[in-house]
Amino acid sequence: MKITFLGTGTSQGIPVIGSNHPVCHSDDKKDTRLRTSALIQWDNKNIIIDCGPDFRAQMLNSKCNRVDAIFFTHEHNDHVSGLDDIRPFYFKQGSIPIYASDRVVSALNKRFEYVFKKDGNIPGTPNVITNIIEDNFIFNRHEIIVLNANHGNLPIHGFRFNNLAYFTDVKTIPQQEFYKLRDLDVLVINALRIEEHYSHLNLNDALEIISKIKPKRAYLTHISHKLGFHQDVQKGLPENVFLAYDGLQVECD
Fold first, then answer.
1. Architecture of domain 2-251
2. Backbone angles phi, psi at 207, to 5 degrees
3. Do 179 and 211 touch, CB atoms closer than 8 A?
4. Tens digits of per-residue pLDDT, 172-205?
5. What is the tens place of the pLDDT at every residue in 79-101?
6. Which end of the chain is more exposed for a tag (fewer CB within 10 A), N or C?
7. H or E segment and range at residue 81
8. Domain boundaries, the chain
């Protein structure tokens, strides 16, 4: 299994438009971050986690030429607004399976009604096969473990693929979910900035959760310019914790 970090930035990305913050003017490519998304490659299947406004660029950057499914964590703009850009895949493959909660599917249907038409879609537009997430489910003969978390007051989903668990936009994880996170090789979790935030983990919050879960390796994503320069932040992290960056590929059993 391999995860490619397609984007590791927040809803504004880095650099932020018009910002004079030093990180937004960094010459280090690792400080340039598209909106958060990931590609999971497992048994010759390509799974996209979240499909935000940078989806087209991310597919071109990663040279991904097939999408077998899209898993959605939640319905915020930076995680869903690229759905129309699945068109080239639809033209080549046919309807694309998506997996999301009933609430997220309803939000997508309202925003992209033409993508969800059952009686023949408008020529030139894509189409999807909807799969409602309620609990763990089977994809390509593998069990996908659904992880429940909260983005402020909004319930959201993470996913466990064998020994890899992926979260983004988390603020709290219910205590009963931690049993699903035992014996991880890789944990991906968000770390927005140094300061507290009402709906996102800050760096200290993320490190506390990592210390509790005890994965072999942890990668931080959904990072804002306010966290600091990639190189500087990495120097201060525990030896098994890494700041993810766009294009990073990580192998996992």
1. 4-Layer Sandwich (3.60)
2. -65, -35
3. no
4. 999 999 999 999 999 999 999 999 999 999 999 9
5. 999 999 999 999 999 999 999 99
6. C
7. none
8. 2-251
Structure tokens at 2: 């391999």
Distance between CA 212 and CA 197 in Å, rounded?
A: 20
List CB contacts of 61: < 8 A, sequence separation 6 or more: 6, 246, 247
249-251: strand order across its sheet: 128-132, 96-100, 69-71, 45-49, 37-42, 2-7, 249-251
| Residue 126 preceded by cis peptide, ω within 30 | no
Q: What are phi and psi of 30, to 5 degrees?
A: -70, -10
Place of tokens 């990495």: 234
pLDDT band at 118 (very low <50, low <70, confident <90, very high): confident
- Extract the tokens encoding 167: 């979260």
Tokens of 104: 């997220």
Rounded-to-integer distance, Cα 100 and Cα 171, Å: 20
Q: Locate all alpha helices (DSSP H) within the chain, ordered by sequence.
A: 55-62, 77-80, 87-93, 102-111, 203-213, 230-235
For residue 12, how far is the Cα from the chain centroid?
Answer: 15
